Each structure stands twice: as structure tokens, then as C-alpha cells.
Predict the structure.
Amino acid sequence: MSDSRTDHAFTATSLYGIREEPSYAGALSFMRRKYTHELDGVDVAVTGLPLDLATSNRPGARFGPAGIRAASVNLAWRGACWPTGLDPFERLAVIDYGDCYFDFGRPDGIVEAIEAHAKTIIEAGASLLSLGGDHFVSYPLLRAHCAKHGPLALVHFDAHPDSWREDGKRVDHGTMFFHAAEEGLIDPARSVQLGIRTHNDETHGFTILGADWVHENGTGAALSEIERIVGGSKAYLTFDIDCLDPSFAPGTGTPVCGGLSTAQALSLMRGLGAIDFVGMDLVEVAPIYDSGEITALAGASIALEYLVLLARKKG
Ligand code: MN
Ligand code: MN
């Protein structure tokens, strides 16, 4: 007789709720969600984009989706979340849609592959929570989201502005927001970059709240600025884990000292309830440089806070 007390990724009979499963056992999925391509009745599909071909220095973010899924099971033993006790999985039907396939031997086709993958999910009526992958994945993701929603406000957590012009043509994990702005996928005047601590001569009109600004003024002031700038616009949330200080997130390719703490990041995430997000990605987790899974756990925790934000809206 089969035993359905484990492997909930495959044995779950409902898209809702959490059932306790030992964190050291069972088939992995994000937060033990059902692993499926069936999109009927789904509110949020979580998907992995295991790409690190656009990384400038240290690769390894292709292992990010697997690392975040593995860390997330430590959060999946109970649905009720701190500090409100709200269980996002009682209100939202969330699945793990698995990973996007692309051919690393045909890099010219990767943008189209990721964009088509995202569109399949979005056009079915589910919203998308993507796990990177290096930050380049935001470019095809923004193309897919803009096709449905029009130009978006960007709320961007990062150590780097990722808006470098370079030669104006190449697209990598440091230039894609220059291109996204140029192509009208995002509106810099309604966009905020938080936690930045690397210089770019050009801001392209983005509002930058550097990590030092957040340390000096606090998360409450940062949230007020985000609300003022983004207002009621439809927005996309992109969270590069290197926004966190290397002491909180060593498992990433391009760490920069002086970043936010995990506590500051969680505080900011919990305060974003006024923003109308249509999608999110969490990128640049590279488990090979991690220590004690702290980076992957931070990534899973931040992604979970996004689901709590959506669940609060559903009421
Ligand atoms: Mn980035
Ligand atoms: Mn970065």
C-alpha cells in the first residue's frame, strides 16, 4: 500500500495548504508545492530558470533553483507565517511548475525560450514567481510581463544597478535594465533600485536608494519612498540576493560589502503591501559559494514573503 505522508510534491491532492513532511526526506519542490504543469485554478506558479551563461565573473547560479527548493523545505513544516500568523497557502493555490528548458549550446535562443516559458504561465492566468539563475533572466521575464501588462514600474533590490550601457548591444547580467528601459519594458521614472553600492555614471532616471541610504534612514523611510515613486502603477519585483551583505548571503557570484541584512530585507518585503506587483524573480543564488545554506534560506524566505504579500491582497 502506498504511503502519502511523504513526497507531497507528487502525492498532494490539493493545491492548497501545507502538510508536514520531514525536511530531510521526500521529493523536493518549492515549499512542498505540487510539482505540475497543470495551470487550471492556479494563482501562483513558481518556476526555476537555471541559467548562468550571462554571468560576468563567478558562475554557479544555475544551481540556484535547486538550492532554493532544498532550503525552502525548512520553511514548509507549517503554513502560518511570522509575524501575522497568515498562511499564504490557505488563500493561494501555489504550484511548482519545474524549470525552464533551454539549450546552452544555442545561447541565441535563450531569451525566446524563457520568454515563451513565462508567457505560457502568465497567459493561463497564473502569476509567476521565478527563481534564478543569474540576473539576466529578468530581461526575458520583463518582456513576457510587459506583453501582458504594458510598461512596468520596477522595484529592484541589488548591490548593482545592472543598467550599464557597455557597447549598447550586449545583454548580460549587468546591462539588462539599460535595455529594458530603452525598450520601454520598464519606466525608470516609476522605478526604485534599493541596496545599491556599485557606481554607474548613468542612472537612466531610476531612483537609487543605496545601501548606505537605507542604513542611515531606515526601512520605513525606504518604503515611503517606494510608495511615493511607484504609486498605483503595476510593478515587477526583482530581488538579486547580492543586495544582502556577504555576511548574510555569501552564496552569490558578485558579492559586495556593506549590504542589507536579511532582517532589513524581510522588513522591506513585509512593508510592500501597497504596491501592485504582477510578478517577481529572485536571482543570483549560487549554492557552491554558500555556507550552511544561509543564502539559499534567505532566498527562500524572501520568495515566501512575496507569497504572503499576494495572499494578504486576496483577503
Ligand atoms: Mn543584479
Ligand atoms: Mn547584483
User: Anything to note?
Assistant: The CA atoms of residues 142 and 185 lie 6 Å apart.
